[in-house]
Design goal:
This protein has 267 residues and is an alpha/beta fold. The chain has a domain of 178 residues: 3-Layer(aba) Sandwich (Rossmann fold). Helices cover 39% and strands 24% of the residues. Strands 1, 2, 3, 4, 5, 6, 7 and 8 form an eight-stranded mixed sheet that branches. Strand 2, helix 4 and strand 3 form a beta-alpha-beta unit. The relative contact order is 0.15. The structure holds benzoic acid (BEZ). Benzoic acid (BEZ) binds next to loops.
Length: 267
């Protein structure tokens, strides 16, 4: 994940559905016992634990110290370390790199893709899911409207996330030396935890970067107002939802022979 200073316990308590959805990715990854996998943006380590149960040797990295501390506490037998995906280096190439709900926090995707390629053995796979174009558009526009209504200069409001279209991300992957095997861009209107305070909790956990242009004494008011603006669309059947849009990716670092053919211009 990319934002520093996470509340890792609160994340586990109220946003456990994130790793729940991540388990769907394991089907796409198709891990074999004995394979080596790098989990990029591992959060509190739930996916890494699921991989370990399948006999995979996992190394989990996350830029956030609190997430890594929580991951180590939750899963003492797994190797976790604090590292930024923009400069991660592995000693031994891995069979696969997996990433769930993390790449949208990493704002230099070409650099991350280059690091992923360098970490993979030839023929290794990169399987990821993260926010795609249009992700949380309703939440973002509600925050923007609430911030402007509270007197914030709109030019000070920025999105802290990278939500690419399939075409944009496929272009980056191909430029970075990957073969794109599969890509899906789909809506996942996601029910938030029953016990949570819905969009208010979501914004408190994840929205700090959206609110940097808003003066600190107004942030709570802006969050409450944004939640009310979201309510007609995102509060359904007695539950809050987030308007997630996912980009799911399966790409491959070509094996040596294919790589050589491509560099010779015959690929
Ligand atoms: C997401 O999983 O799509 C997401 C989570 C937090 C902030 C932004 C996006």
């Amino acid at each position: 994940m990319g934002q520093q200073g996470w509340d890792a316990e609160g994340y586990d308590r109220s946003f456990g559905f994130v790793s729940g959805y991540g388990r769907e990715l394991l089907g796409l990854l198709g891990p074999e016992p004995g394979e080596r996998v790098l989990d990029l943006g591992c959060g509190t380590g739930e996916l890494a634990a699921a991989l370990t149960e399948l006999g995979v040797e996992v190394r989990g990295i996350d830029a956030d110290a609190a997430m890594i501390a929580q991951a180590r506490a939750n899963h003492p037998g797994i190797h976790f370390e604090q590292a930024d995906a923009h400069d991660v280096v592995v000693a031994e190439p891995v069979d696969a790199v997996l990433s769930n709900a993390a790449l949208h926090w990493m704002l230099d995707p070409a650099v991350v893709i280059a690091r992923v390629r360098a970490a993979l053995r030839p023929g290794g796979r990169f399987v990821a899911e993260f926010g795609g174009q249009g992700n949380v558009a309703i939440i973002r526009s509600a925050v923007r409207d609430a911030a402007v209504a509270a007197g914030t200069d709109p030019t000070r409001l920025n999105s802290p996330w990278f939500f690419p279209s399939p075409a944009e991300y496929a272009t980056l992957l191909e430029a970075g030396g990957f073969r794109v095997r599969r890509m899906e861009h789909f809506d996942r209107f996601t029910a938030l935890d029953d016990g949570s305070d819905g969009i208010v909790d979501w914004l408190r956990m994840f929205g700090t970067g959206l609110l940097t242009g808003v003066s600190t004494d107004l942030r709570d008011q802006v969050i409450q107002d944004a939640a009310e603006r979201c309510r007609p669309v995102l509060f359904r059947d007695g539950r809050w939802h987030a308007d997630y849009v996912r980009l799911r990716v399966w790409a491959e670092r070509p094996d040596r022979a294919t790589d050589d053919r491509c560099s010779a211009g015959v690929g």
